[in-house]
Design goal:
Layout lengths: L1 H21 L13 E8 L3 H16 L5 E7 L5 H13 L4 E4 L8 H9 L3 E5 L5 H7 L5 E3 L2 H13 L7 E6 L5 H17 L2 E7 L4 H14 L3 E6 L2 H13 L7 E3 L8 H6 L5 E3 L2 H18 L6 E2 L3 E3 L6
Helix pairs in contact: 2-11, 3-4, 6-7, 8-9
């Protein structure tokens, strides 16, 4: 009987190991050694985030002995569900830190709380999480990124030098629930108010070029007196430029942007985009990764860290 009992126990143990290894819910524990950092971005169809990813991968290559990098993003700026899934996948893979540029300032907080509860360091970049939602969840997630309001105000102030007090301007906004979109709109409004301009139209184009093209086409039809269109990112500025060209108003209406993607450089040189703001996409994820490494090493209390944002106009481009 003892022999049969031993064989049965052995068989059950083997089956448990086999089925445990095959179970989709089973995940391998992280091997000791280098920390694994997940970078979760917004739309990789946007040049800004491709530049961000490239900068992060170059940094990891140069510091390959310090950490491993898992980088991913969503196809659509509005696909909050997919981005939530990416966070959950990284939790399941037991990464050491998540550096995230959230598509929505509120909706991604719950998923990131799960990461914190799992002992994962979370660093917020690009688009700041909503302070009220963080407080409601009882968590702190450091924001490493630029002052978007200040950057938009700089762009707006530069554009205002080409306008006259009383001129009518329009704002093309990003996703309304995104903190950075809200801050950039406020920055543009600050500049226009200080210069005596009138903001006669403001509409979201969800960061997308084609949506902005349609929005600006409608704006210039409804408001033929418009003298400037201030766009919360450069993709939307490209859409605005195309809409003005189609309407034969490229010379009459100024366009400004934000992000300093390479696609607008020639337009800035030509004056078709009067100015944009550089928040250094190639370094933005790196700033977050470096901060995550600091937090893993020091286990300190999280605190926000402001990163640079600079005005880009024709005279600043080499």
């Amino acid at each position: 009987m003892k022999a049969c009992y031993s064989v049965s126990v052995l068989a059950i143990s083997v089956l448990a190991l086999v089925f445990g290894a095959c179970s989709p819910s089973a995940s391998k524990p992280a091997l000791p050694g280098k920390p694994r950092i997940a970078l979760i971005m917004k739309s990789l169809a946007n040049e800004f985030f491709l530049t961000m990813e490239k900068g992060a991968r170059e940094h990891q290559t140069a510091h390959s002995s310090q950490y491993e990098l898992l980088a991913n993003g969503i196809k659509d700026e509005l696909d909050v569900g997919k981005q939530t899934q990416l966070v959950e996948q990284m939790i399941a893979q037991r990464v050491d830190a998540i550096v995230i540029a959230p598509a929505d300032s509120k909706a991604l907080v719950t998923a990131c709380k799960k990461a914190l509860d799992a002992g994962i360091v979370v660093v917020n970049i690009d688009n700041k999480f909503d302070d009220a939602v963080l407080a409601e969840k009882g968590i702190k997630i450091p924001f490493v990124g630029p002052d978007n309001r200040k950057g938009a105000r700089m762009v707006g102030e530069y554009a205002a030098k080409r306008l006259k007090p009383g001129d009518s301007v329009a704002i093309v906004e990003g996703v309304p629930t995104a903190f950075n979109a809200i801050q950039r709109k406020l920055g543009f409004e600050d500049a226009m108010k200080a210069a005596g301009m009138k903001v006669v139209a403001s509409q979201s184009a969800n960061w997308e070029m084609e949506t902005a093209n349609r929005a600006v086409s409608a704006m210039i039809t409804e408001r033929p007196e418009l003298k400037a269109v201030l766009c919360a990112n450069d993709s939307m500025a490209l859409g605005a430029v195309a809409a003005l060209k189609t309407a034969s108003k490229a010379e009459a209406v100024l366009v400004a942007g934000f992000d300093n993607i390479s696609a607008v450089h020639d337009l800035v040189k030509q004056g078709k985009v009067v100015a944009t703001a550089d928040q250094h996409a190639d370094r933005l994820a790196v700033f977050g990764i470096e901060y995550a490494l600091e937090m893993l090493a020091k286990k300190g209390a999280p605190a926000d860290r402001e990163t640079p944002v600079d005005l880009i106009a024709a005279e600043t481009i080499k």
